[in-house]
Design a protein that fits this description.
8-stranded parallel sheet, alpha+beta, globular, 8-stranded mixed sheet, about 900 residues, 12 helices, about 35% strand
């Protein structure tokens, strides 16, 4: 379905109904409080805005990091936890100027239900997780009055136990108030300004709602002006004749808002009575038009590609989202540095400050209802969700950054109701694109009738993310998802790609100085210490992280190579410490680098312009040619002028050994821009080495690169005095005679864990049945790999070897053994494992390799090369293993 959504203007600085500063009292400060558990005793104070957690109020955790348990690994732990009702009181002084005025109590964000009393007279209740809670108070005489808030953070509706608006997995279930707390007085006011510009006709339409005494309506006027960079571009003044006024403002040559030019206008609307200003509503806004024409996301008539990550309400110091701009600047500027232009707020809606920062930086936001569950026919839940959706649109709907609205995460059940909800929302607000759900396991893998865009892991025609491919299919860098999205009726965005677990960073523990304590990290550290593995923790982190980064690179490039694709949403650029410690980020939970990959390197394959290369495999022999087709994915808001594209091949010493150029015409916006083909004869590569192939746009920063491995087609026959065998018994016989042996048993004979290329999915605690390890830690400085070029982490040349392996379980060996190739076990088990070890046994010397290097070698380049490299190493005088194994210890590794 094609549907044009008109440009609209958005608030960047939220004005609480435009009230004048002198008619507003801040309620920040000391309040007395009482928990429902302490018999209504109000003899203690707390600072609000704030939370009970901030004040150290609640029950400390009952778990200990001394033992590695599922419970301790569940999430970060609140230092003090309280779930229930808490009552807060404060005496205020109402000034004389508030006499006979309507009063409003404004609480910017609360979990979950608030009841309000003034002087022991109940005012009302409010229930919301997504928007300010606002109470209309009775008129109060000047002088002292008592305001009482009873806040209940218990679950009010079954929205799902892991919904990020309400879970201790990410944001904690705090009790209190965060953000602004104000008492506002008004006699007449501007209630709302909703602005829908029509760029095609160069105008903006303002719908202004006011609240004035009906009998005095004709005494009031509205004055509205629009300015850009301090210069007035439109203005109008009208007399009120109704509580709702619609005004059209012509804007000549409007400057459009997007990620490259987040242009913001300023609008000022004044309500006057007899020439005197009684209220003012001042906003910043941006103009844009988003569409889904031709099943592609378009902004201002040009294609966009969402390079996104999730924001799951992860703020480890406070346990709640920042309510000011500073915290969101850290999040979004970091995301931009890593080449992203999109944030998905998984099952929650951020506060005003997040939208304001996104508007100013040009970030495309996806907001969701607080929902992650199976929906039935519960009318009360339906009413709550309807109300939440309306509040979200009312409070944040004008923001240009608010581009996408999904009804929740991985929803199941009553899709008839979800479609009706989306239909209703679209009929009332056409300023963004809507989706019934962000993926669904239960529904057929195709868009719903009301979907304007479609977020999924797969379609009825196949996978659209590498998670379902990387372990089962040999690496091929010429593939994309074209077949999977054939005939897709709306734009498609990949759901939660990645989820590759990275080993915990022990140095991160000291960063938790707020309301949360990392008992999960401490438990891993203690377990490593008990097993003598703690010195390897940093190496585990970096090696597992490098593997993860490589997989993210290929995930992103496959999406960019797919014609018609509209984007991806990572899970995640930064860690998710909930749901059983899901450390899936290249950054930590604080949006800080783990030292795995720099922003510059990541943005080389994740940015508005990305050179791409299609080639069929990672490893070659020197009797082959390397062939690659170069493309440019251009998702700027304009075509790239005629350019020179440079390709280059460098050897292991970083010396350029081949180069070439293509001269292009204008490169249009899109991702089907083929610029040339590389054909490089590898016959000049006489020794095994890794080559780097790069493609760049000359005189720009746009450059991307890939590694391939080249081996001699024929191995020298210079290896002597080393026996190769697949039989453990035969190996022992030879070792007893003092021979040197390379033992490569069938994997079926090994007591170990089956090899898997991709690391643990999400969390080994959350999904314990997966066979997951977290990659290899390779002693790359060992001469064992003199003829098998490798880094100290898993790269693509290890794919065939890893997937045809079974790890050796080394815990049974009491001696300290350092494998040449160590398997990084998942952090919930931390077993000692390896796939290549060396030792002295009896009178002989031994290498055991538990990766298959003996079957179908004529078809398996890397297996053949590793076998040669290990045999060559074992044949040399320098081969002197330091560890001595008994015959029984060796046999203990096998069935």
């Amino acid at each position: 379905m094609n549907r044009i959504l008109f440009v609209f203007v958005a608030l960047c600085v939220f004005s609480i109904n435009g009230s004048n500063a002198q008619d507003r009292i801040s309620l920040a400060g000391k309040w007395t409080y009482s928990l429902d558990t302490n018999a209504r005793n109000f003899n203690k104070t707390i600072q609000l805005p704030g939370t009970l957690d901030d004040a150290g109020i609640g029950t400390p955790p009952k778990v200990s990091p001394e033992r590695m348990t599922k419970e301790v690994m569940r999430n970060l732990w609140r230092k003090n936890s309280y779930i229930g009702a808490a009552t807060y009181k404060r005496e205020i002084t109402v000034p004389a100027g508030f006499k006979n005025k309507d009063l409003e109590l404004y609480l910017e964000r609360v979990i979950w239900k608030t009841s309000v009393w003034v002087d022991d007279r109940k005012v009302g209740d409010a229930v919301s997780l997504s928007a300010p809670q606002i109470f209309q108070l009775p008129k109060l005489a000047p002088g002292k009055h008592t305001i009482t808030l009873r806040i209940d953070n218990r679950q009010q509706f079954q929205i799902g136990d892991a919904t990020h608006a309400y879970t201790d997995g990410t944001q904690i279930i705090w009790n209190g108030v965060i953000g602004k707390m104000q008492l506002i007085a008004r006699q007449a006011s501007i209630e709302q300004v909703s602005i829908t510009p029509d760029v095609d006709n160069s105008k903006a339409v303002f719908n202004i709602n006011v609240k004035v005494p009906v009998s005095e309506l004709n005494a009031y006027s509205l004055q509205t002006s629009i300015a850009f960079k301090g210069k007035t571009v439109a203005q109008k003044s009208v007399k009120l004749s109704n509580s709702t006024t619609t005004l059209d403002f012509p804007i000549a040559n409007p400057v459009l808002w997007d990620e490259f030019n987040p242009a913001l206008y300023t609008s000022t609307t004044r309500l006057t009575k007899n020439g005197k200003v009684v209220d003012e509503y001042k906003t910043q806004f941006g103009m844009r038009k988003i569409t889904n024409q031709n099943s592609q996301l378009q902004l201002n008539g040009k294609r966009i590609f969402l390079r996104g990550t999730l924001e799951c309400n992860i703020f480890p110091l406070t346990g709640h989202p920042p309510m000011d701009k500073a915290g969101w600047l850290k999040v979004m500027t970091t995301a931009k540095q890593y080449g992203l232009n999109h944030l998905r707020f998984h099952s929650w809606c951020p506060p005003e400050a997040a939208f304001a920062v996104a508007d100013s930086l040009g970030m495309y936001l996806q907001v969701e209802l607080p929902l992650w569950t199976t929906i039935g026919k519960n009318t009360a839940l339906h009413n709550f969700l309807n109300s939440e959706a309306d509040l979200i649109l009312k409070n944040y709907g004008n923001h240009p950054s608010f581009c996408f609205f999904s009804m929740g995460n991985e929803l199941e059940g009553n899709f008839a109701w979800l479609n009706e909800l989306v239909k209703k929302l679209k009929s009332g607000d056409k300023r963004r694109l809507y989706a019934t759900t962000s993926f669904s396991f239960g529904q057929k893998s195709w868009p719903q009738p009301q979907d304007d865009f479609y977020i999924t892991q797969w379609t009825v025609k196949g996978w659209v993310r590498g998670q379902g491919i990387f372990n089962d299919k040999a690496p091929a860098f010429n593939t994309d998802y074209t077949k999977s999205i054939d005939s897709m009726p709306v734009p498609i965005v990949t759901h939660e790609i990645g989820q590759y677990s990275v080993y915990p960073n022990m140095d991160e523990i000291k960063k938790y100085t707020g309301v949360l304590t990392p008992l999960n990290f401490m438990a891993v550290r203690n377990d490593l210490s008990k097993k003598g593995l703690l010195p390897l923790a940093k190496a585990y982190l970096l090696a597992s992280g490098k593997l993860s980064a490589n997989l993210y690179k290929e995930e992103i490039e496959r999406a960019l190579k797919t014609p018609g694709f509209s984007g991806f949403q990572l899970l995640d650029l930064h860690d998710f410490p909930g749901q059983s410690t899901a450390l899936v980020g290249l950054l930590d939970a604080f949006w800080d680098s783990k030292g795995i990959i720099s922003a510059k390197e990541f943005s080389s394959f994740c940015g508005p312009v990305v050179p791409l290369l299609r080639f069929k495999k990672a490893d070659y022999t020197n009797d082959e040619k390397f062939t690659g087709t170069a493309e440019i994915a251009n998702f700027l808001n304009k075509a790239i002028q005629p350019s020179t594209i440079v390709w280059e091949v460098k050897d292991a010493m970083k010396k350029t050994i081949a180069t070439g150029e293509w001269h292009t015409k204008e490169i249009p916006v899109g991702n089907e821009n083929v610029v040339g083909q590389i054909d490089y004869d590898l016959s000049g590569i006489t020794i095994a080495q890794a080559l780097t192939v790069s493609v760049s746009i000359k005189n720009t920063t746009y450059k991307n690169q890939w590694t391939i491995w080249v081996y001699p087609a024929k191995q020298p026959s210079d290896i002597q005095n080393v026996s190769f065998t697949t039989s453990v018994n035969e190996a022992i016989d030879k070792l007893q005679k003092g021979e040197t042996v390379l033992l490569n048993p069938d994997t079926s004979a090994i007591k170990g864990v089956a090899g898997r290329f991709a690391p643990v999915f999400w969390s080994p605690v959350h999904f314990p049945s997966q066979p997951g390890s977290m990659g290899l830690l390779i002693n790359d400085k060992s001469p064992a790999f003199a003829n098998f070029p490798t880094e100290n982490y898993t790269n693509w040349q290890w794919w065939d070897l890893v997937t045809r392996s079974r790890s050796l379980m080394l815990d049974s060996i009491p001696k300290e053994i350092n494998p040449l190739v160590r398997v990084i076990d998942n952090f919930f088990k931390n077993r000692k494992m390896g796939t290549v070890i060396e030792a002295k046994v009896g009178k002989g010397k031994l290498i055991v390799c538990s990766m298959d290097i003996h079957t179908k070698l004529e078809q398996r380049t890397t297996a053949r090369q590793l076998r040669y490299s290990l045999m060559k190493y074992a044949s040399e005088k320098q081969f002197e293993p330091q560890v001595v194994l008994t015959e029984a210890e060796l046999k203990g590794l096998f069935k």
